[in-house]
Fold each of these.
Amino acid sequence: ETAQSLAYDPGSQPSVATAAPSSSSPPSSSASASAFCPVVPVRGAVVERQPRMLNFCVEYRSTNVDVVLEESSSVGEIKQILETELHVPVSKMQLKGWKTGDVTDSESLNQNFLLVISHHEAQRDYSLNFPGSKTIQEVKRNIYDLTNIPVRHQQWEGWPATARDDSMTLAVAGISFPCHRLTVCRRTSPAHTQEQSEECTDVHMVSDSEGDDFEDASEFGVDEGEIFGMGTSASRKSPMMPENAENEGDALLHFTAEFSSRYGECHPVFFIGSLEAAFLETFYGKARDRKPLAIYLHHDDSVLTNVFCSQMLCAESIVSYLSQNFITWAWDMTKEANRARLLTMCTRHFGSVVAQTIRTYKTDQFPLLLIVMGKRSSNEVLNVIQGNTTVDELMMRLMAAMEIFIAQQQEDIRDEDEREARELVKREQDEAYRVSLEADRAKREAQEREMAEQVRLEQIRKEQEDEREAIRLSLEQALPPEPEEEGSEPISKLRIRTPSGEFLERRFLGSCKLQVLFDFVASKGFPWEEFKLLTTFPRRNVTQLDPTWSLVEAKLFPQETLFLEAKE
């Protein structure tokens, strides 16, 4: 937490005197405070991280109020808390004591400062972004990583007169916002350094001691390893990656959480999963969807690690470029067991040559960034980027690797398109052949159904004909014999014309019923259910008469010409 003390100013308004905040966050906190929201890691893994807190002590008359809030809060939020505690309206509050001058209610507590630091001997300028919560001591340690000048030998120009305590944060050190210029060089002797300190109040030095006189670092509240920026992983509160993780996914979850706590949320999105899973995600999809693989190899014992992570790997331009164009997988090489595990994985996926190459790199050459591309049926390491680089050089090498990858990707896309075109033609031919077979089969089945239907109808027709023939024969056999023409009984001679134009002639007794006439016509193949029997003149439908009437009663005596007509 960051502590700030507040003093009382007689009057109607509270006043604030700001002291040097002290931070409980790790010294290697991110040099960029930009809010970058990384994509949720693969397999839905979500890494939670405690926010950095600031503690303000406000003195108002005889009352002291402690205000604790996140570093991303604004001054206006402090006033709202004070209004609740002190019952003083926000409009009447005036907070004093900010070492950077008066601030507005909307101003954030974690502003970013751009430090342009000139290295006198190397004649080189470093443009470094730091949050306001970064301490002067942490800035000097970062400069040691860049210039190889130990903190005790650093001679500075440009620090304000108020910045005499290295535990002070940049936000309260009185430096210019948003950009402040500083100069650093290696001091030549203690006497010369003391002289500089007396002549210029802008000079800020950590110590006047040199060489063996700097054996006791406890007076600064830190151990010697931390001052040199070379503390081992064992001296840290939490290693970047556990030594005996059950699987690579759990190890990467721990790595991502620890990386975020050290360097902030603005960092590349690390793939959560095994190296083999990263290969499958990167190289074995469609050619248009493939990306090169960036393997980040971390080492806590390297003096380059802190600066590379905070200033290069976490630079917004690098983070954006990696997120858009690469799949980034990470591993910690600090522990020997993890190092051996990584070399085994490299041997399996790349071969012994790559593994042996990684073995040749010394600790102070880490961290490494390996750019890997899937080529045909093998995986090829395009580039190995060491930690002693700059943002511009890192970006150029990433872009160069991307150009090689895009050229290979275009070739793979052409091959894939040609293969898909051939497969499409084959599929179309197979589909046409299948449709043809299906049409032939449907045609054959239709013919078979038609033939079966014809057989069925023929069978029905035959059965109907057989049935009608049986009825006809039975009716024919049941007819009374035709009477003689010279008989004693009255005779009715009937002449019947069929629809085909033929005539049926027969004699009937005048006393015969009409039913006998109907049965005679039906025995000739004209059932009265289907045909009607009509007289010529006057036109009458005989089949509508009572079949029990005699021919005489039906006026079909002594002779009559009739004709058959099919019923509608």
Amino acid sequence: VLSHNLCTVLNVPHDPVALEEHFRDDDEGPVSNQGYMPYLNKFILEKVQGNFDKVEFNRMCWTLCAKKNLSKSPLLISDEDAFKVWVIFNFLSEDKYPLIIVPEEIEYLLKKLTEAMGAGWQQEQFDHYKIALNTSREGLSAWELIDLIGSGQFSKGMDRQTVSMAINEVFNELILDVLKQGYMLKKGHKRKNWTERWFVLKPNIISYYVSEDLKDKKGDIILDGNCCVEALPDKDGKKCLFLIKCLDKSFEISASDKKKKQEWIQAIQTTVNLLRAGSPPPHKEARQKRKELRQKLLAEQEELERQMKELQTANENKQKELETVRKQLEAAAARAAEEEKKRLQTQVELQDRFSLELEREKMVRQKMEEQVAQKSSELEQYLQRVRELEEMYKQLQEALEDEKQARQDEETVRKLQARLLEEESAKRAELEKWHLQQQQTIQMTEAEKQELENQRMIKEQALQVAMQQLEQLELERKEALEQYEEVKKKLETAANNTKSWKDKVAHHEGLIRLIEPGSKNPHLITNWGPAAFTEAELEQRQKSWKGKKGTSE
């Protein structure tokens, strides 16, 4: 029955013969040496194509395990809400068995629920809960998470309906990939009338229904990277309009207000951008980033633990070396004590012998006393050396502690020096760059200054030449004026002479006459302009002059 139901939910053809063949060696069925998991993997899960209803599959798995594991204590959430929390747990849990949800994901889920309920997030309360949780375990199981949400510990002051609506909203976003939903007006393609529909935006499709219960579906808007959305001006009495353009169709939508219009346009545009980039939905991408961050932190923690172990091992080695030195010092002290004991015994024997032979060997006794004094001095020096070694041992222990502290301080200073060196190198490079730019600017300025100086010298030379030319021109002008005055005087003299001559000619020869209209014949041109008589008249007058001249002769 289980296999048949699994095949039905996963859209996989059921093969009862394969089931019978798999368990033919044992009449007890799945409780066989082969087990049920190999059959499930080979004959059911390997044939799944992905075209099945995941909610129905989750509901079937919930039916199998809820009755046995769900807490019997009364909860503030319904069984349906508990099922949705269970599905969300499967989405947020770690990818290892037994499945648990870590505190970071619990905080993410509780924040989403609190935000959906419109309440404020109590970070301090969750921190206390997180501390108590970390001391006992790594995370929560699905049933412990249901108990936590159902107990109302983080939803105090909220009624069952508000909590249920919040769970449903988070379930739609994380499990059903609902990015946005709500009522809007849609313009029909045939009748061109406006009808209110419940729109549901998912990563690659917009579905619209008669109402929010999602029972009567009216159509879909398939989204891809070629789609676009743009705002439209108000028309036909409709406001807050926008247009969704696809390859085959365009859809005119009217939102309830400008805020809803902008939210829908932004949500649809974000979805299209994700499709173009081939990126997953935002909540799945955020979950993957949180998981990668946890793995990175775990790796860093393991590396830190490894370094701590290495330091501990090095410390243990140092302790062993110090213990060896201490044992050597103790052995040296024991040898010194043994030598001292032997020395004292020898001294007693010598004193007994010297007391019997004191008189006979007085010189020998003095020598022996000198030797004893020398030995005593050596012993005192040896004991002093032992005390110095013990003091040295204590100083070595203190030095070891100081060395450990110094290494830590040295590491801190080294990091600080490295950072300061990096900053100094960056500043030095920047200063060198500025210095080079200044040098280049100075060189360019010097070159421009030299060029301007050359131009100034050339212009001064040209000015001097021009002044000389101007002085020469002034002299020439003065000479020309003098010549002009002389010519003017000559012209006045010539004009006076000409006037007197004309008067004489006019008086003696009768050249003066009244100006009359000229003839149509061409006029003669003289030095003073058009003549006062024609050529014929001139010939007649010449003849007359010649006749008079001949008569007078």
Amino acid sequence: MASNMDREMILADFQACTGIENIDEAITLLEQNNWDLVAAINGVLPQENGILQSEFGVETLHGPAYGPTSHSSAASPTPSSSSAFRHVVPSRQIVERQPRMLDFRVEYRDRNVDVVLEDSSTVGDIKHILENELQIPASKMLLKGWKTGDVDDSTVLKSLHLPKNNSLYVLTPDLPPPSSSHSGALQESLNQNFMLIVTHREVQREYNLNFSGSSTIQEVKRNVYDLTSIPVRHQLWEGWPSSATDDSMTLAVSGLTFPCHRLTVGRRSSPVQTREQSEEQCTDVHMVSDSDGDDFEDATEFGVDDGEMFGVASSALRKSPMMPENAENEGDALLQFTAEFSSRYGDCHPVYFIGSLEAAFQEAFYGKARDRKLLAIYLHHDESVLTNVFCSQMLCAESIVSYLSQNFITWAWDMTKEANRARFLTMCTRHFGSIVAQTIRTQKTDQFPLFLIIMGKRSSNEVLNVIQGNTTVDELMMRLMAAMEIFSAQQQEDIKDEDEREARENVKREQDEAYRISLEADRAKREAQEREMAEQFRLEQIRKEQEEEREAIRLSLEQSLPPEPEEESTESVSKLRIRTPSGEFFERRFLASSKLQVVFDFVASKGYPWEEYKLLGTFPRRDVTQLDPNKSLLEVKLYPQETLFLEAKE
């Protein structure tokens, strides 16, 4: 059983291949085929695409649905395949298929009508809807554009095995055309696209060519020269309308059947054969291409090739080369390539990477594993007969464009000019090695265009596939899907390795971050300790300075004190007993005539400055420090003796 991730990839691939947008419908079809992608695709795509389910397995038939086909194979009856076609369902399990919705865009003259029906409806149901929209009786309508041959009103749409989106057109040959001005009708014809089915008579090969109504007959013939190598002046045509008398006429006024017209072209038996001789030899041939051939009959004598006379070394529809020769900047060359490709084949084409091949490698291979893609290199060659069909029918198919845009980085290069070819081979040798470059160098012109599928690896870039131009849409899609399977397996390994590497790196980053935070914390702690120590040292210094200052003041006061009088002094002596806050006492005798400031100086000399301490008397209790220090001890009544207390000021 496929894992959920595998099923998501299978579902995306299935929707890209089949165009089924409804997810429930797509899942139902995949479950009916046990999530077998190839079986589910074979069960949905039309049988004429060349993929059938046989009773005993899957058989791939390369039918004539795409590109140039053999006339004989187109004319011969195709073996019946409706009996062999079946849905693959798991054994012992039948899942009822839900109705599938089909979208039709129906064109009638200047109108487009969108019709949505279940595949169980009939062709007649479409006509009834159109009858109400267009106001045209259903019996008068011819509904054209079916890919199968026999379709009538009772045909069930499911039996036609149609894709989801379809384009049809209505013809009403029994009704007169609407009245309008000639200029309006002409302008409408110029804007229409004509499908010319050109059969190359000698090789019995058909080419389906799209031209706008403004293209000229001469442009058609030059384009056919590019496909058949028959110079315009040697082309012998059948099927042109009688009104197409001049090669300068546009297809809109030439009388061609719209939207499809069949023509046959062959080579004139003699290069100098005139138009009148050709008409005599073949009465059913309408037009022989002279295109002023007589004027250029002997051009080869002057070294001028047949194709060069009309500038058709490339297709006539190609107004300018895909890429300038000797372009200095690859990005500018790719811009011109993309613009020219759009002008030739329309806007529905792969999105080409604009930049150098190295930049394309960087975009595809060197991002995160989940974002990586395969690199598709498209090598164009204007001189290959396969280029026009490959570009218009394969490379511009919506399924291919969608699949490439989702899974690939697409880079392109033009190999037509020898200088550009040599430049790419040099790039190829540098990036892929000489073997791959030699493989491309040996490819013949008719094997172009080439489609290289590149997968990036750790040590080198690997070329998974080289797809040549002679392929079909189904084969191209299968080879792209096969490359995607190889890439997906490698991508899953890369994602696993990348996740493990990221997990290891995350652990390492977390450890480094934790270590950094630890270092920061240690540094902050160390700085805080250093700041604290510095602050303590500063405070200690201040304290020491203050103590030194106080000690100096104390010593100064102690030295300035008058000598203590003797006990037997004849003068009046006051004896003071002073008690410190710690309970100690010290005594001293003072002359009664001494000023109170002398007592204050004495107390300060003992370490108790009067600015910080107050001196209190006992009876009565008083603050001696509030008294006038210039008065004598006798005047302040501290005579003949007194006991005082020291108390710190608040």
